[in-house]
Amino acid sequence: MEERVQNIESRSNSKIQIGVIPGHFATNHSHVNYYVDMTAIKTSSKMAREAAKDLAATYSSTHIETIICLEGTEILGAFLAESLSSGGINAGTDISVITPELNAVNQMIFRDNTQKKIWNKNVLLMISSASTGKSISRAVDCLQYYSGKLVAIGAIFSAIDEANGIPVHAIFKGTDLPTYDTFMPSECPMCKAGKKVDALINSFGYSKL
After folding, report:
1. Closest to 164 in 3D by CA, of 123, 128, 208
2. What is the pTM of this model?
3. Which of 143, 168, 160, 142 has its CA nearest to residue 65?
4. With CB atoms 3.0 to 4.6 Å apart as the test, which of 30, 34, 190, 208 could cross-link to 24 if both were Cys?
5. Structural domain tally of the chain?
6. Residue 130 burial (CB count, 10 A)
7. Which domain holds residue 8?
8. CATH number of residue 113's parent domain
9. Beta strands 66-69; 122-130: pairing state
10. CB neighbours (10 Å) of residue 129?
11. What does the pLDDT look like over 170-209, one tens digit per residue?
12. What is the rounded distance in angstroms from the CA atom of residue 44 to the CA atom of residue 93?
């Protein structure tokens, strides 16, 4: 499957790249026709720093106190906090970077020692991929419970432009992958055509079937 990978460069910075593999892939709530590989941005310090600079330019006039990282974006989130605090409205700000815990029923929770980083704080939600917006909606519900104020949503790749009334600013957008599509499992045309699922995918990667 790796032989099918195509590398796509960011339109604003050629040092930032993702890999895409065409096929039939299943997530926990949808089927998609591409696997978007963001491993390099989530693990390479050099690329993560470049990606953080790209995103930080978008939020130069947005006051941010906490970055909540989902789907393995902690390295990117840390560099984003560094970039944000180096200039603009957030210059000199000590921005917190935290990750929620998932409980037994897959709900996002924060322990008592990190809740103070959310209560009445301006929060930027960082996610690796937004295809349907369901993961973002779940995070928004969590933030409301802890009285966090969601002011921005950042993503490495997003097929949607907004979620819960807030723009999703992504390094790579649907226009970078115009043939990307997502389907409810019951409505997937690839399944109806009898095409085998290539792999199960989530924020950690893929498992071939």
Report:
1. 123
2. 0.91
3. 143
4. 190
5. 1
6. 25
7. 2-208
8. 3.40.50.2020
9. parallel
10. 24
11. 999 989 998 999 999 999 999 999 999 999 998 889 999 8
12. 25
